[in-house]
Specification:
Order of helices and strands: HH
Number of helices: 2
Mean pLDDT: 78
Radius of gyration: 20 Å
Strand content: under 5%
Number of strands: 0
Helix content: 10-25%
Distance between the termini: 46 Å
Structural class: mainly alpha
């Protein structure tokens, strides 16, 4: 098998696709809670820790 540069092997391959769901960002967290959560938008607070 002949070795080829990596860029030749994957030029037509899709490596990843991002999906971002539409969200309503209507309310804001209090500053202390926002710092602890890492975001000021409560809709973006992850339930997974």
């Amino acid at each position: 098998m002949k070795c080829e540069p990596f860029d030749k092997n994957i030029t037509a391959t899709q490596l990843a696709r991002a999906y971002v769901a539409r969200q309503k960002l209507c309310t804001l967290l209090e500053p202390k809670e926002a710092i602890l959560s890492g975001t000021i938008f409560p809709e973006l607070v992850s339930i997974y820790k």
